Amino acid sequence: MLQCVNDKNTSLRVTSRSLTLRLVSIFYATVGDRIIGRWTNNKYLSGKIASISEEDISILFDDGTTITHPLNHVTAVFADTVPVSVNYKDHVVAAWQGSYKQYIGYVIEVSESQGFKVRFEDNDGAWYQKNQLRIFSNAATVYDG
């Protein structure tokens, strides 16, 4: 089991015996846990942790495909849990209507009756309920341009 602890600078230090790596989400990661993981096209899919080593995390996606990411890719994997709260301008991941693929977007409007309006990177938008959203890290990655 890997344990994540706050490192006083909004990222986290992950320890497993002498292993120390930085992640952005607080969660205990074990094989079989439900996660959201990045696929090769910078889109995200739901799946579960297939294996964890001192350097890598392997994911088995719900569609049967697999991928392995280095543990230091801080936005490659995060816990598939309903957020405690969602706010205006939060960076989120949500499945596009009728799709299993998860896309990155921002909350651009909050309505008590409709939920949360999310605008995605391609400028499309849709309304979601809190249980359909996952908070996405604002951390810069090697994939940011």
Automatic annotation (TrEMBL):
<protein>
    <submittedName>
        <fullName>Uncharacterized protein</fullName>
    </submittedName>
</protein>
